[in-house]
Amino acid sequence: MLRDKSLIPLSRQHQHALALYVRIDRASPIADADLQLWEEEITRQFEAEIKVHFAAEERVLFPVARTFRELTALVDELLAEHGLLRKSFSDAEAGRMSAWELSAFAEGLSRHIRKEERHLFERMQELMGPAELAALGTQLEAALKDAAQACAVPIQVTKLRPTK
Question: Model confidence over 52-101: pLDDT tens digits?
């Protein structure tokens, strides 16, 4: 289904986070010597965009989704995943991630994003009318105003590597 324009800002940010996942996946296994640089990259992306993204979803998107009984369990799942992902971001900031944890974080981030895109966004677009979606889009735009508006430029170690 074509993404409604009200949700495109969130989808664009999802693309940025998925780019991080792809870079981690292609670089795996991560060498111990590079782990700190990856943790710094994850921390930068969280501070620049993901922190604001999570807050917008939690303050604007999820409460609207909860008005649809069939989405309540999914929203609960997504909120729990936000908590786990925040812990991973905190671990990265504190320099406490192992290479295995970094890969597990990337996989979890990817699964979370795909769940929002394929399940939550699709179903909300089916359940909401154009006026409701437009109002949601206006609220999301205001909630996302402090987020970075471009994909982060990685450093040499964290750049996308060709597939093997």
Answer: 999 999 999 999 999 999 999 999 999 999 999 999 999 999 999 999 99
The CA-based angle 21-100-39, given to 5 degrees, is: 60
Rounded-to-integer distance, Cα 139 and Cα 69, Å: 21
- Distance, CA of 42 to CA of 12 (rounded, Å): 17
As a whole number of angstroms, the distance between CA 107 and CA 100 comes to: 11
Compute the radius of gyration of the chain from its Cα atoms.
Answer: 16
Domain residue spans of the chain: 8-145
Eight-class DSSP state of 145: T
d(CA 75, CA 119): 10
Residues 100 and 112: their CA atoms lie apart, in Å, by 18
CA–CA dist 62, 147 (Å, integer):
18
pTM of the model: 0.89
- What is the CATH code of the structural domain delimited by 8-145? 1.20.120.520
Query: Which two structure tokens, joined as six digits, stand for 164?
Result: 């093997």
Report helix, strand and coil shares of the chain as percent, to nearest 5: 75, 0, 25
Spatial CA neighbour of 55 closest among 77, 86, 88, 98 = 86
